[in-house]
User: Fold Kinase inhibitor from Winslowiella iniecta.
Amino acid sequence: MRIYSHDLHHGEKMPQRHVFNGMGYQGENISPHLAWDEVPSGTKSFVVTCYDPDAPTGSGWWHWGVANIPASITVLPQGAGSAIAELPEEAVQTRTDFGQAGYGGAAPPQGESHRYIFTVHALDVEKLEVDEHASGAMLGFNVHFHSLGSASLTVMFN
Assistant:
C-alpha cells in the first residue's frame, strides 16, 4: 500500500497552511490532500489518521481521525477535514486530542520539533462502530482488529 500527498512530502516540514490556529500558532488549520493506491485485496473501507508520537503527554497526540471511508474512495482533497472540501457521505471524523472532531494541525510546544504521521489503513469491514465522540485510541483499537494493511507519510514541524 502507498500513501502520497500534493501538500506533504515525507521527511520534510509541514507547510504553514496545515498548522493549527491556536496554542501560540497562526496556521490555517487546513487538512492536507492525501491519496493512496496499491490497496490490499478484500479492502472494504479506509481509515485515515494523523498522530504526533512526540507530544509530551505520555500517549502522544491525535490530530485527526476519519473512519468509514468507502473502498471506492482513494483520495481526500485538501480541506476535507476542515469543512472546506467534502468528505464522503459515509465517513465520520472522530474526536482529536484538541477535544473535537475534525482536523487539528501541528502545534508542538515552542522550541520542540515533532513528527506528524499520516496513515491510511485498509480494513476488511465496511464500517467501524465509531462516531464523532470516539477518541483516537478507540479508533486505533477498532482498526487493529480489521486491518489488511497500511501506509504512512511522516512530516515534521517545529
Observations:
- The domain at 2-157 is CATH 3.90.280.10 (Phosphatidylethanolamine-binding Protein).
